[in-house]
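A reminder from the course coordinator: this example appears on the midterm review sheet, so study it carefully.

Given structure:
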């Protein structure tokens, strides 16, 4: 794996040429008082180093005479490590992480300027930590102050994202292996949850089944807060309380994925808790499933990303028109977004080291075309909240539709010849999600 991190750095260094790039590790985040969240490395930093500690800075200086990859890390400190975990330390970081030079992090201000002074620009993405931003800007300012006298200094500050994120978007064979594993674990978790869920049980019990499977199979944990939403809770897109007792004749929407070695999966399934759809639930489910299948059918190299959304919207609009939940001309409904009370989110996102992964969806007016190695989610839905807002010129929604919320989400890899649905192992056809024998209230 070290070789692959080194290759990524080489590729980025070739692009930054005479510049110097600075990447900072994620900070530790406080949950409450002096209790911290589990540490989660910054994805850019991890992609380039594979290093999993806080309070670190990676510098890439391809033009520097001696050191091209420099790391600043927390030094060994046995007393601190007793509390917060072992550190690689300055000595071992060089060999373990392949750095040309390693310094303790407290020497950053002293050592950094030598790697910046001859650079033509500094690649640094302004982050949320303003004091660190100020630190970098101050170094830059100090170098600029001597520009006139010396005749060299970095004269621009540039975001490395446009160089780095297209690299992150195309997954390597190693990355795909990890993504397939993340998908496989989430598939197992969903299938287990499907077996377990029934009227009378609580949403959190289903969540426990899912997250138990994640951990049991070696995932770090959920990729995002698991959504287990029964009945009208499914109309709340980010419902995460998961506290309700599930009832007969309701749907259960589960949106849950895991992080495995930092790579994420993201799956949604919706199914009838009693094993059989009501006619209204079935009618909506059929539309969402058709929208999802047609959208997935678009996924192949060369398709504009936006088409995956546009196709889903069209199927949803036509379906809602057929049911009388919308009325009028489909073109006008689409253009004026009159479907939005039912479908208010996008049809997917890139997936990778981040759940909502990096990468552009559009280049201004120019479409972003799908390429082999990209992974995206396809996740259309229809939500008929009991509080759905009436739209002028549109029919009022009869209460028999209220509380139906359906989303179906898969993770899809673009391949040279089309696509590969990584999460195909969780059933979604009507015949498969209507499981008999779950109608007894426990
Ligand atoms: N659960 C996050 C998403 O589907 O994007
Ligand atoms: Mn998603
Ligand atoms: Mn999701």
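Designed residues:
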């Amino acid at each position: 794996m070290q070789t692959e991190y080194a290759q990524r750095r080489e590729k980025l260094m070739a692009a930054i040429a005479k510049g110097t790039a600075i990447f900072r590790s994620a900070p530790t985040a406080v949950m409450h008082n002096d209790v911290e969240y589990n540490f989660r490395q910054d994805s850019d930093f991890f992609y380039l180093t594979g290093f999993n500690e806080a309070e670190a800075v990676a510098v890439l200086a391809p033009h520097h005479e001696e050191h091209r990859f420099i790391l600043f890390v927390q030094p060994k400190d046995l007393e601190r490590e007793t509390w917060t975990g072992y550190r690689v330390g300055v000595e071992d970081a060089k060999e373990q992480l392949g750095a040309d030079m390693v310094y303790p992090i407290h020497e950053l201000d002293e050592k950094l300027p030598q790697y910046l002074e001859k650079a033509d620009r500094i690649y640094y993405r302004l982050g949320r930590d303003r004091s660190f931003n100020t630190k970098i800007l101050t170094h830059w300012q100090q170098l600029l102050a001597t520009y006139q006298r010396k005749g060299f200094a970095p004269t621009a500050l540039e975001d490395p994202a446009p160089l780095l994120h297209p690299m992150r978007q195309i997954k390597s064979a190693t990355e795909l292996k990890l993504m397939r594993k993340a998908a496989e674990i989430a598939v197992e978790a969903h299938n287990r949850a499907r077996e377990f869920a029934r009227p009378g049980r609580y949403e959190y019990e289903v969540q426990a089944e899912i997250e138990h499977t994640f951990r049991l199979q070696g995932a770090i944990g959920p990729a995002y807060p698991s959504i287990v939403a029964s009945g009208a809770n499914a109309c709340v897109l980010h419902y995460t309380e998961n506290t309700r007792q599930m009832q007969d004749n309701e749907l259960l929407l589960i949106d849950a994925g895991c992080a495995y070695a930092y790579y994420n999966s993201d799956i949604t399934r919706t199914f009838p808790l009693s094993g059989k759809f009501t006619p209204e639930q079935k009618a909506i489910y059929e539309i969402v499933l058709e929208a999802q299948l047609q959208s997935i059918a678009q996924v192949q190299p060369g398709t504009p990303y936006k088409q995956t959304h546009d196709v889903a919207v069209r199927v949803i609009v036509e379906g809602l028109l057929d049911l009388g939940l919308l009325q009028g001309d489909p073109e006008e409904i689409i253009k004026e977004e009159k479907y939005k009370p039912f479908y208010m989110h996008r049809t997917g996102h890139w997936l990778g080291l981040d759940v909502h992964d990096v990468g552009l969806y559009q280049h201004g007016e120019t479409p972003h075309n799908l390429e082999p190695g990209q992974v995206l989610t396809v996740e259309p839905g229809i939500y008929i909240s009991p509080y759905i807002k009436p739209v002028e010129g549109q029919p009022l929604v009869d209460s028999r539709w209220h509380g139906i919320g359906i989303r179906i989400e898969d993770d899809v890899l673009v391949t040279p010849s089309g696509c590969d649905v990584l999460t195909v192992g969780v059933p979604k056809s009507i015949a498969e999600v209507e499981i008999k024998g779950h109608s007894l209230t426990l």
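The radius of gyration is 25 Å. The pocket of manganese (II) ion (ligand 2) is lined by residues 266, 349, 377, 379, 409 (CB under 6 Å).
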